[in-house]
């Protein structure tokens, strides 16, 4: 099939970018969205033009590297899907496809569709870990954890940090990401000890990085490749208020 | 811009708490207004007595200050959060279909809130200002005849229309606001979240139906 692509091109983070039109013929329904972009890039190389830069890594939907705004939706028209797991069967011959980077003040565009998500890393650095002496991995069953509790923690820990929640949020809030990371540790015995300080540090860091507030539109849960529940945000709020109240 | 002390969480908390206080106020307001549905003569006496009771009570007066404060704080923090959001968003998308995955009213609380604020100004000018500072006729009991003002106002078709539209905006604002406030306060247990959602819907429908029925009833009956 033949597609009309309108792709965001930007030389560097300070440069002014714009949408550029490309025509691509010979796209098959079996291709993934990223393979379609690879194909376009091959034609650009043959023409001696600069290739379109975009983030990607595993192409299996688990690493959280890829992330594009496709036709005005984070990761494209499907729910709970990464960009790499979106296939061209979701498009028709002759379609016009807008491809833009995830946008937020806290996500700087580096080049074309490639963005800087290190603000996420700094939120994790603020408290998204457990302080423990390193060494050999401890025996997994030495701390008993019930099945339901383990599953609940996994549901939150499934976050791959792709940034779709921020991109789709009308306020560019990182509430779902921060909630997933803080709550998954808070509900496990290893993470409970530092829970209060962690929640405060991570939420305050999210503020400092320039993310917006959560107004509970729940759009993030729909676009999240892992379908992380927005109830984690409510739990984050609960834990934040509690920690703030009890802080000495 | 002046940098405000306090976190986004604190602003959100103010929005939720003032919003919920206003929700409680609406219950009292709609219940009081039910007296308008009494037979005309009885309604006049009853409603005017009730108005005098409210305006003369020191406890009600104190609560009314909390009410004025809540409205102002709700508007103030809404503006603060909107400015913050503008800054957080950065560049706009050239093609934006993000609205497809969430209810329209949840994404337009600011717009709905602005409509409600305009409506509130009209509403306060019509009744609150009239009662406090205007020249009102007296009823047979010698009470200020607010009932007459209400009747005269709702006899005008376009006025009824403005009220119905304002109340619709309020309805959608409540539909999202009520449950969003619960989330902001940290209600996360799935069972109670479900209960709260149903409760929020029921609350909104009853309140708005009650308010919307009044102008229509008076327009048709008098």
Structural overview:
The complex is a heterodimer of chains A (about 250) and B (about 220). Chain A has about 250 residues and is of the alpha+beta class. Chain A folds into 2 domains: about 5-110, Ubiquitin-like (UB roll) (Roll), CATH 3.10.20; about 120-130 and about 145-245, Fumarate Reductase Iron-sulfur Protein, Chain B, domain 2, CATH 1.10.1060. In chain A, about 35% of the residues lie in helices and about 15% in strands. Chain A contains 9 helices and 7 strands. In chain A, the strands form 2 sheets. Chain A has a 5-stranded mixed β-sheet with strand order 2-1-5-3-4. A two-stranded antiparallel sheet of chain A has the order 6-7. In chain A, helix 2 packs antiparallel against helix 7, helix 3 (about 145-155) runs antiparallel to helix 5 and helix 5 (about 175-185) packs antiparallel against helix 7 (about 195-210). Chain A is elongated and about 60 Å long. The model of chain A has no long low-confidence stretch (mean pLDDT about 95). Chain B has about 220 residues and is mainly α. Chain B has one domain: Up-down Bundle (3 helical TM bundles of succinate and fumarate reductases), CATH 1.20.1300. Helices cover about 80% and strands about 0% of the residues of chain B. Chain B has 8 helices and no strands. Chain B has helices at about 10-35, 40-55, 60-90, 105, 110-135, 145-155, 155-185, 190-220. In chain B, helix 1 (about 10-35) packs across helix 3 (about 60-90), helix 5 crosses helix 6 and helix 7 (about 155-185) runs antiparallel to helix 8 (about 190-220). Chain B is elongated, with a radius of gyration of 20 Å. Classes of the chains: A alpha+beta (about 250), B mainly alpha (about 220). The interface of A and B includes residues 217, 230 and 238 of A.
């Amino acid at each position: 099939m033949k597609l009309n692509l309108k792709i965001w091109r930007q030389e560097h983070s300070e440069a002014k970018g714009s949408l550029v039109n490309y025509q691509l013929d010979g796209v098959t329904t079996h291709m993934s969205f990223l393979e379609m972009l690879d194909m376009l890039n091959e034609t650009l190389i043959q023409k001696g033009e600069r290739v379109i830069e975009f983030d990607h890594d595993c192409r299996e939907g688990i690493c959280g590297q890829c992330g594009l705004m496709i036709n005005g939706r984070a990761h494209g028209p499907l729910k709970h899907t990464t960009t790499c797991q979106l296939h061209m069967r979701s498009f028709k011959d002759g379609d016009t496809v807008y491809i833009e980077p995830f946008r937020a003040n806290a996500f700087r565009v580096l080049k074309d569709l490639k963005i800087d998500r290190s603000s996420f890393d700094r939120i994790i650095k603020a408290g998204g870990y457990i302080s423990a002496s390193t060494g050999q991995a401890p025996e997994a069953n030495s701390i008993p954890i019930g099945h339901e509790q383990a599953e609940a923690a996994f549901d939150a820990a499934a976050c791959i940090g792709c940034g779709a929640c921020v991109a789709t949020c009308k306020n560019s809030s990182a509430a779902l990401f921060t909630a997933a990371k803080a709550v998954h540790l808070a509900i496990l015995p290893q993470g409970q000890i530092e829970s209060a300080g962690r929640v405060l540090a991570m939420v305050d860091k999210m503020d400092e990085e320039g993310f917006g507030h959560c107004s509970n539109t729940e759009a993030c849960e729909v676009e999240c490749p892992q379908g992380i529940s927005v109830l984690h945000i409510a739990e984050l709020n609960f834990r934040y208020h509690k920690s703030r109240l009890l802080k000495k | 811009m002046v940098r405000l002390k306090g976190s986004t969480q604190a602003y959100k908390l103010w929005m939720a708490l003032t919003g919920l206080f206003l929700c409680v106020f609406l219950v009292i307001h709609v219940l009081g207004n039910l007296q308008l549905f009494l037979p005309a003569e009885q309604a006049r006496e009853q409603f005017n007595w009730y108005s005098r009771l409210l305006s003369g009570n020191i406890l009600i007066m104190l609560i009314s200050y909390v009410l004025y404060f809540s409205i102002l704080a709700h508007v103030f923090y809404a503006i603060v959060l909107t400015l913050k959001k503008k800054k957080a968003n950065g560049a706009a998308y050239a093609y934006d279909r993000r609205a497809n995955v969430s209810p329209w009213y949840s994404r337009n609380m600011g717009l709905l809130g602005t409509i409600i604020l305009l409506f509130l100004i009209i509403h306060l000018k019509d009744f609150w200002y009239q009662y406090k500072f205007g020249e009102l006729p007296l009823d047979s009991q010698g009470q200020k005849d607010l009932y007459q003002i209400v009747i005269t106002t709702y006899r005008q078709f376009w006025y009824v229309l403005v009220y119905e539209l304002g109340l619709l905006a309020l309805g959608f604002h409540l539909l999202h606001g009520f449950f969003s406030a619960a989330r902001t306060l940290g209600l996360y247990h799935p069972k109670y979240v479900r209960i709260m959602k149903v409760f929020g819907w029921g609350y909104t429908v009853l309140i708005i139906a009650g308010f919307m029925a009044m102008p229509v009833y008076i327009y048709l009956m008098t």
